[in-house]
Design brief:
The chain is an alpha/beta fold. Helix 1 packs across helix 15, helix 2 (about 70-80) packs parallel to helix 4 (about 100-105) and helix 8 crosses helix 13. Helix 5 links the parallel strand 6 (about 115) and strand 7. The protein has helices at about 15-30, 70-80, 95-100, 100-105, 130-145, 155-165, 185-190, 210-215, 235-245, 260-270, 285-290, 300-310, 320-330, 335-350, 355-370, and strands at about 1-5, 35-40, 50, 55-60, 90-95, 115, 150, 170, 195-200, 225-230, 250-255, 270-275, 295-300, 315. It has two domains: about 1-175 and about 355-370, 3-Layer(aba) Sandwich (Rossmann fold), CATH 3.40.50.2000; about 185-350, Rossmann fold (3-Layer(aba) Sandwich), CATH 3.40.50. The protein is about 45% helix and about 15% strand.
């Protein structure tokens, strides 16, 4: 199969769940003998980079602003697919980019289309009324126009089938299982010792709930540090807000974006992972944390509870006091915490395996082509 991927910022993945999903899936599709082309943005991937692990990278310009970056790039990528005969199938990722599937249907009605519904982005507080309205239109296109719709969580599958009367295929995000790493880089950079910090990894945007986590942490009497990993995504005002909330507390550490060995060290040596988000699709950061046997406390939104499992520690979404109570319980019960973490690693490696995810995606795409 010759597959075009549209909707991601680029490869290799630096941050973002969709980018990680596309990288892991595309790499394995190429290994299985398929030809994959991924459209990239010059503000994310080096313009002259044409190949990554056998994946063809096609750089197209975009209008690099909060509201126009994704849609301007998607428009050019869609035109490229429409007027090219190089692809057997086009795969859209996300409801925003999926808003332009109608162009393929209009100008290349015979070209098979698959879309992956990653998240209900209109719940993200960074978007205004006009953007949220457009994203809801994109959701409609994502669920109605493709030959096949994939959802990354059971909750999104149920939502799609109930709201749009459209059968969806559940194929989740996945996770790689890496060996634990010693705390070398993180001790040198931030003085972090094994088991002596609470970790959160996310984009620094309001719907990720980092402000709730900081408020909850400040209610605790603990020597364990709070480490927040991530960067702004056109959300500099929010970053300033949460850093102001942290104030002069030297135990609250903002590391910025981290990848590779440093991120693996952070996961390997944390005492606890905190996921305070108000909205998710299926969090890859949460899956990654649990793959290191790292126990998690999550907000009680359906997507987090689905990923974290039935026995997870959860708190009422948007409630810093309840989160503080759950954090205190975790700090007071480390043995119970470790037991849960070990059980969750076994489940994660079984249910969120990239090899199985790739096989299911190949079967779905082949059924569309037939």
């Amino acid at each position: 199969m010759r597959i075009a991927m549209i909707g991601q910022k680029g490869l290799p993945a630096q941050s973002g769940g969709i980018e990680k999903h596309v990288e892991e899936l595309s790499t394995r599709l190429v290994q299985a003998g398929h030809e994959v082309s991924v459209f990239t943005r010059p503000n994310y991937t080096e313009k002259n980079q044409e190949n990554y692990k056998g994946i063809k990278l096609i750089s197209l310009p975009s209008i690099n602003t909060k509201h126009l970056d994704a849609i301007s790039h998607t428009f050019l990528a869609t035109l490229k697919v429409i007027f090219s005969r190089k692809y057997d199938l086009v795969h859209y990722h996300g409801i925003g980019p999926s808003s332009l599937i109608w162009l393929v249907r209009l100008f290349r009605p015979g070209l098979p289309v698959v879309s992956t519904f990653h998240c209900q982005d209109y719940y993200h507080q960074k978007w205004g009324l006009l953007s949220r309205t457009y994203l809801k239109i994109g959701e409609y296109m994502c669920c109605k126009l493709p030959d096949k719709v994939i959802t990354v969580s059971q909750g999104l599958k149920e939502y799609t089938e109930k709201k749009y009367q459209r059968q969806a295929d559940y194929i989740p995000n996945g996770v790689n299982i890496y060996p634990a790493r010693e705390a070398k880089n993180i001790q040198e950079k931030w003085g972090l010792l094994p088991g002596e910090y609470i970790l959160s990894v996310s984009r620094l945007v309001r719907h990720k709930g980092i402000h709730h986590l900081i408020q909850a942490y400040q209610k605790l009497d603990t020597d364990k540090k709070l480490v927040i990993v991530g960067e702004s995504v056109f959300t500099d005002d929010y970053c300033r807000e949460i850093k102001k909330m942290a104030g002069s507390n030297s135990n609250i550490i903002f590391t910025g974006k981290q990848t590779g060995e440093v991120l693996q060290e952070l996961y390997s040596n944390a005492f606890l992972f905190a996921q305070p988000s108000e909205s998710e699709g299926l969090s890859i950061a949460l899956l990654e944390a649990m793959s290191y046997s790292l126990p998690a406390i999550v907000s009680n939104i359906p997507e987090n509870l689905e990923a974290a499992g039935e026995e997870s520690f959860s708190f009422r979404s948007g409630d810093p006091k309840d989160l503080a109570d759950k954090l205190k319980f975790a700090l007071d019960n480390p043995k119970e915490l470790r037991t849960k973490g070990e059980k969750e690693k076994e489940r994660i490696s079984r249910e969120y395996n990239w090899e199985n995810i790739t096989s299911e995606t190949i079967s779905l795409c082949q059924s569309v082509l037939k």
